[in-house]
Amino acid sequence: MLHDMSTTPEPAAERSADEVNKEIRALWFRSGGRLSSQERREYQRLVLEWAEASPDPTKAA
Prior knowledge:
mainly alpha
C-alpha cells in the first residue's frame, strides 16, 4: 500500500496571511531586492504558505 507523503515540511503553527506577508517583506528588505537561490526557495515556500492562509475570495459574499 502506498502512502502519500509530502516532502515539504508543514509550518509548526498556522500563521495568518498578514504574519506571513510580514516575513516575505522582511526577506525582500534583507536581500536588498535580489534573492539568492536559497532566499528564492524560502520566498516560494512563504508565498505558498501565504496563499494557504489567505481567505478564499470565491467564498466571500
